[in-house]
Every structure is written in C-alpha cells, then in structure tokens.
UniProtKB/TrEMBL annotation:
TM segment ranges: 27-45, 65-85, 106-128, 189-211, 223-241, 284-317, 329-355, 367-385, 397-415, 427-452, 485-510
Family to which this protein belongs: Belongs to the MptA/B family.
Organism: Herbihabitans rhizosphaerae
Membrane topology field: Multi-pass membrane protein
The keyword Transferase belongs to this UniProt entry's keyword annotation: yes
Full protein name: Alpha-1,6-mannosyltransferase
Location in or out of the cell: Membrane
Pfam families (alphabetical): MptA_B_family (PF26314)
Recorded GO MF terms: glycosyltransferase activity
Keyword annotations of the record: Glycosyltransferase, Membrane, Transferase, Transmembrane, Transmembrane helix
GO cellular component, one term: membrane
Keyword Transmembrane helix listed: yes
Length: 533
C-alpha cells in the first residue's frame, strides 16, 4: 500500500484574525460572567442559600427576573461566541488557531462558572446526600435521602421531590468519592459543591488531554475536535456549571482509549492488515492500563462500558482480524472490566447493589425520550378510546423495544467496525448516540456521550455544522434554574425580553470586529469590485 502523504499543517492566524479571536474570547467571557451573576438569583441554589443576606450578592436572589435575564443573556452570548470561534477551527481552513489558543479560550470561559452555585440542574445535591448516606454506613443502593437522612435534613430538602426517595444509581467509584467529600466537608453544602465541581473539572481536563491526541490518531483536526467536544456550551453549562458526573465518566472513557492505543496501530476503514505487525514494547501494558481506566469510567456511570467493546474491536484487528481474534479480544476486555468492577465494589465496601439501580434514571417520564414519548402517547390514546389507562404498561413495552433495538444496532456497529467498514471511534459515538436516543431518559447533557467521541473522528464540515446547530439549540433550551417556575411564568417573557436587549446591544458594540462582520464586509467589497469591472 503506498504511503499516505502527511497532511499539510495549517498556518497560524494572522494579525487581523488574532484580533478577532481576542474579541470573540472576551465576548464569551462576558457571557460567562453574566451567567455567573445569574447563578446568585436564578441558579439551582440550595434551600438555605448562603448568599441570602450578604450585601450585594444577596440582592440578585430578590430580583429573579433580572437574574434570569442575565442568565439568558449569558447563555446566548456564550453560544454566539462559540459559533464564531468555530470559524477559526474549521477543517480545511488555510489558517487555524492553535491548541494552546483553544485551551486558553476554554479556561477564560470556564473560570467564572467554576466558583458559582450550581446551574441548570440540582443533581449535585443528590450526589452530596448520597455521599453523606454512604459516610454514615448506610447502603445508598437500598435507601434514598428521605429514608436515610430524613425529610428535615437540609441536604434532603435540596433534592428534587422525585429523587428524594430514590436510591443511588451511580457506580461504587463515584460514591466513594462522594463519601470522602462528605467526611471532609462536615455537611457544608458550599464546600461540597466546589469539591464535586473540582472532580468534574478533572474529568473535563481528561477530555481536553485526550481529544486532540485521539483526533490525530483517527484522522480528525485536533483543534476542531477540541472546539466541538471540549469548548461546547453543553460542556460549559452542564458538566462544569451543572457539575454532572458525566464529565468524569466521559473523561475516563476518552483518556482510557488514548492510553490503550498509545502503541496500537489503528487501521482506517477499508484498510486490511495483511500481517499482524510485531508487538511493540509495552503495548500490552498500555492496553491493560487503558482498559482499566475506561472501566473506572463505568464505575462512575455504566454508560462508558461500550467503549471497551470498540477498543476490543481495534485490538482484534491488531491481532489478525479473524473471528477467533475477536473472541479473544472480547474475553480479554471482559476479564479486565470484571476484575476492576468487582475490586471497586469490594474495596469500597458498597457491594454490587449498584447493578440493581441502573434503571433509576428511567423514573423520569419525558417527551424528550422518543421511546418514552411513544409509550405515553399510546397510553393516552388508549384512554381516549376508552380502553383503560395502560400508560405504565405501554411505556414499559416501548422502553423494552427501544432497549432491544439499541442493543441490535450497537452489535451491528461493532461488527462493521471489526470488518473495517466503519471507523471504531465513529462507531462508538454512533452507538452511544443510539443508546441515548432509544433510552428511557434523554437529558441535554446526554448528547455529549455521542458528540465528544464523534468530534475525535469526524472531520467533515457538514457534520460539524449539524452537530453545532443541535448543540446550540439544546444548550439554549433549558433555563439555568434547574427547576420549574411554580406559577411564576410571567417572569419568563420579561426575562427573555431583557436578555434580548442585552444581547442586541452587546452585538452592536462588537459588530465591527466580529469575524462574521469581516467576512460580510470582504464579500461586499468583492461584489462591488466585480460590478465595476
């Protein structure tokens, strides 16, 4: 097979583009600061809000409309800035921003969101309560916060009503971390939130470390992968500001893949390894380390487990691409994952109760989940036809069909990857996307399960455009409060109007230097020149 010429390295941004980049960065930082201010009055604050009564800081809690307007404006400005930033990271562009420039941009936008009350969700309070339950020696897989801590406990009051009696659905590694945090903080909600956010920032750091390396390995543009996978507004809003443990799960998954493949040559779709190359020194060791790290992600949330399947496919092709090699690689991955999960369950003393709580997120009935929506619609149709209310049964059947269909599609993707017809990293992203789409529950941050792996393998600009549009829409769809408005819906139109005014005025200020303005101006000059000629 003829050697593939190395890709042409893009040039650095010129002076004008660097000035435009500076404006985009500062504009996004403005959005992050507005969102940080909004968290004081329109965030998912605890019931006993520590900023109430504090001069200046406590003012926003008494002005919910103003705080919410700041939140909507900050969200819109961050999304606009991110879309404009994508121009400097578009594959095929002659000049691209560097990885260090992208990293610094992420730091600028993430820093204001790292030290604020939670936004967009109250799940972090469930994490804190489950840590306290575990620290007391109570099995968090048997009792929820209401039974284990009591309804009067401040931590229980911070949890949404539907989750107060729900046992923990997370793996033993995550609950062990929550236990340590509870022992360190002595029920301090503020410190506990910051510790959990620090844990999720560690997960984001692993994503930032692994993404560009995996992108090089799978043929994507590293800076573009960082833009779509790490600087994504969904990461900023939900993994950092919302402190969701998806950050740690995805971080372990991506870092584990990179560690496992450090010395494993990855064949591209259509390539057939004629002869297994000789094993390199340390290859098996790194493969084991990578598989262990991925399994640690599954010990946070089981959703990381499909990554082991696609890693096994890569290994099977490395060993010779026969069915016997596939069976051998599968046995190898199962042995490692089983050893790690059993060890984590026994060492933490939490046992295997987590295996019986994997369906807990399915308690949410949301129209965002297609299979749940079909079940709800079928149940309501039965009521309309006077056949009785069988909504629960209809939802269970629809979810069972969705689960079976998702499993079948994932097996098909694994097989196509093994046969060399599909890039394994693309297969992983598609498989996780199918699991989300056909799962019992769909939440905005679940989209990152698929987007982050796909960003490391797909360099097509059409995919980038579609993925960016979907992520931007979903990022703007959920208010920062993390809860409903309890009859105060009149706040919303006023907040949206105030946010629209703020965003419009800010765009007028930076209009002359924004990249999109420059491009339109340049196109207009070219059109006028052609008319003259």
């Amino acid at each position: 097979m003829p050697a593939t010429p190395p890709p042409v390295e893009p040039e650095a941004l010129n002076g004008q583009e660097r000035r435009q980049l500076t404006v985009v960065r500062r504009y996004g930082t403005l959005g992050a600061l507005l969102l940080a201010v909004a968290s004081l009055g329109a965030g998912a604050a605890p019931v006993y809000n520590p900023v109430t009564g504090v001069p200046v800081l406590g003012l926003f809690a008494r002005m919910p409309t103003v705080a919410l307007a700041c939140g909507f404006a900050g969200m819109a400005i961050i999304v606009i800035s991110w879309l404009l930033l994508g121009r400097f990271a578009r594959p095929g562009r002659e000049r691209l921003m560097s990885k260090s420039q992208m990293d610094r941009t992420l730091i600028m936008w993430a820093t204001p969101l790292a030290l604020i009350p939670p936004l967009f969700s109250r799940d972090v309070y469930s994490y804190i309560a489950q840590g306290k339950i575990t620290a007391r020696g109570i099995d968090p897989y048997l009792l929820g916060a209401a039974q284990a801590l009591g309804l009067a406990d401040p931590l229980t009051r911070d949890i949404p009503n539907m989750w107060k009696e729900t046992p923990a659905p997370y793996g033993p590694l995550f609950l062990q971390c929550a236990r340590w945090f509870s022992e360190i903080t002595s029920d301090s909600v503020v410190v506990s939130v910051l510790l959990h956010r620090g844990l999720e920032l560690l997960g984001v750091a692993m994503i930032v470390w692994a993404l560009p390396r995996l992108a090089k390995r799978f043929g994507a543009q590293p800076v573009s992968a960082l833009w779509l996978g790490a600087v994504n507004p969904l990461v900023l809003f939900h993994l950092i500001a919302g402190a969701h443990n998806e950050a740690l799960m995805i971080g372990f998954m991506m870092a584990g893949l990179e560690l496992a493949l450090r010395h494993v040559p990855v064949t591209r779709p259509g390539e057939k390894p004629d002869k297994p190359p000789p094993w390199q020194r340390g290859e098996l060791l790194w493969l084991i380390i990578g598989a262990v790290v991925i399994t640690l992600g599954a010990a946070v949330k089981i959703s990381a487990m499909p990554a082991l399947g696609f890693l096994g496919v890569i290994v099977a092709r490395r060993w010779g691409a026969t069915f016997a090699h596939l069976v051998k690689a599968a046995a190898f991955m199962i042995a490692i994952s089983a050893t790690v999960l059993v060890t984590a369950s026994l060492v933490t003393g939490l046992g295997f109760g987590w295996t019986g709580q994997l369906g807990t997120p399915g308690l949410v009935r949301s129209w965002m989940a297609p299979v749940t929506g079909v079940g709800m619609l079928s149940g309501q149709l039965g009521v309309l036809l006077q056949l009785g209310n069988h909504t629960d049964a209809a939802i269970d059947v629809a979810r069972l069909i969705g689960m079976a269909l998702a499993a079948a599609i994932c097996v098909r993707l694994l097989w196509r990857s093994f046969r060399g017809r599909l890039d394994p990293m693309i297969g992983l992203g598609l498989a996780l996307g199918v699991v989300v789409a056909l799962g019992a529950t769909v939440l905005p941050w679940y989209l990152l399960w698929a987007v982050i792996p796909l960003s490391a393998a797909v360099g097509d600009n059409r995919f980038r455009t579609v993925a960016a549009g979907v992520c931007a829409f979903i990022a703007l769809a959920q208010p920062p409060t993390g809860s409903g408005f309890l009859g105060h819906a009149f706040v919303l139109p006023q907040a949206y109007l105030g946010a629209a005014v703020v965003v419009a005025l800010s765009l007028l200020v930076v209009n002359r230097t924004l990249p999109i303005r420059r491009r339109k101006a340049a196109q207009g000059d070219a059109d006028r020149l052609s008319v003259r000629e």
